[in-house]
Every structure is written in C-alpha cells, then in structure tokens.
Design a protein that fits this description.
It contains 9 helices and no strands. It is mostly helical. The longest helix has 24 residues.
Length: 241
C-alpha cells in the first residue's frame, strides 16, 4: 500500500486537535487526568471560582508559560523557537476550550459506562496525538520542550529527564490539589492507568501511523526525506515516554 506523503504540517494540526480532544474526554470521564495535564486542571478548578474567565484551556497555556520561564532559567538561555512552542500551547488551550463547548461544558459525565467509554476514547486520542507530535518538525508544546531542552543542554538521557519530570509533575499535582482545592480532584485511578499505558499506546499508535503516512513537509523537495531523517528521533522520543 502506498503511503500518504507530506504529512508534517498536517501531523502538527492533528496533534493539537486530538490532544485537546483527549484531555477534554478524560476530564469529563472524571477518573483522574495524566500527571502532565493534572496541574493545569487543578489550577483551573480552583481559580475559576474567583476568575470566571479562567477556563481549563487558559490554565493550560498560562501554566505552560510559567514552565517556559522556569525552563529558560534552568538552561540559562532563550531561543526564538521557545516562543513558537508557547504559540502551540495557546492554540492547544483554545482548541481544548472549543472541545468543551462542543461537548457541553466541563461537567463530568455521570453514567459509569459513558465515563469508561470517554476515558478510553480520550486515552486513545491522546496516544495518537503525541505520536503525531513526535513526527513533526514544527514546535511542540512546552511539556515536551522541557524534556528535550534539558537533555540537550546538560547531556542527560531523555529517559532519565522524562522520569524525573513525570515524578515532579505528579508531586506538584498532589501539592496543588491539597493546597488549592483541598481535595484530590483531578487525580485518581485514571492517573495511574495513564501512567502505565501511555508509553506503549504512543508506541503502537506511532507504528500504525508510520505504515500509513510519510511525515515529510509540504514544502520538502522530495518525498521520504522527512521520514528517513526523523525515524531515529521518533524512536528516541517514544522510548522516553
């Protein structure tokens, strides 16, 4: 079967749309978010009582903006592409709010069967989204940027940095839940499940995508260059997840 080519830019858009859809569905399933998405949700859940405009999407790009500042301090440098990653974060936040509008707001689903289905579809959507993201050369969200830049700046292994980042994110989520909401809202059995299944789900999604698409740019001179160049990078990125 002939692969569909020139998917670099389309993969970036698909990553944003599918990731936002996944976070929306997982939020409405109310089993707990991933340790990466939980901090922004917990802040949204606490601050929206004071600031009605503080949507979950707004919380996402504000939180990622703070992460960007901390990253610049940690690596002691600033690059223009960091701002482009923040633009990606803003687009993700706006798309996330758009999905909540489509699905009738942030209120959690009530029926157990519906919640399980929403969690399953949200997890699947997020897995494909991250697999798409790892196959594009366009700016990633700041969550991924933190891992890649710290690894590059200090010569650390991606897997080590990712593990530390996940542990810090989980600890931060628990602290925010206690301090801001005085409850564990946003953290639950779903958080544990996502921690276990995320990496294999992303890897499987990536293998399926590689069978169907070639991730070179719409502006590339020839087909296949992007795929050959990025194959090693994709494997390293998926391993670190």
């Amino acid at each position: 079967m002939k692969k569909l080519g020139r998917m670099n830019e389309i993969a970036w858009v698909a990553g944003i749309v599918l990731c936002a859809l996944g976070v929306c569905l997982i939020t409405k399933a109310d089993f707990g978010l991933s340790m990466i998405a939980a901090p922004a949700y917990i802040l949204h859940n606490g601050f929206i009582k004071i600031f009605p405009w503080y949507t979950q999407g707004t919380s996402e790009y504000i939180f990622q903006g703070v992460l960007l500042i901390l990253l610049c301090i940690a690596v002691r440098r600033f690059r223009f592409r960091y701002l482009l990653s923040f633009v990606t974060a803003v687009l993700f936040g706006l798309t996330l709010d758009g999905w909540f509008f489509v699905f009738g707001g942030n209120a959690a689903y009530t029926g157990l069967a519906v919640r399980i289905f929403a969690f399953f579809m949200g997890s699947l959507s997020t897995g494909f989204a991250i697999a798409f993201f790892f196959r594009t050369r366009l700016p990633l969200q700041i969550y991924e940027l933190v891992v890649t830049e710290l690894s590059d700046r200090y010569g650390w292994k991606n897997t080590t940095v990712k593990q530390i980042y996940d542990a810090v994110s989980l600890l931060l989520s628990v602290l925010l839940a206690v301090l801001v909401n005085r409850s564990m809202t946003g953290i639950g059995i779903g958080t544990v499940i996502l921690t276990v299944v995320n990496a294999p789900l992303i890897a499987l999604s990536g293998k399926l995508l590689d069978r169907i698409f070639v991730f070179d740019s719409l502006f590339a001179k020839g087909d296949g260059d992007r795929e050959r160049k990025g194959r090693g990078d994709r494997k390293r990125e998926e391993e670190k997840e």
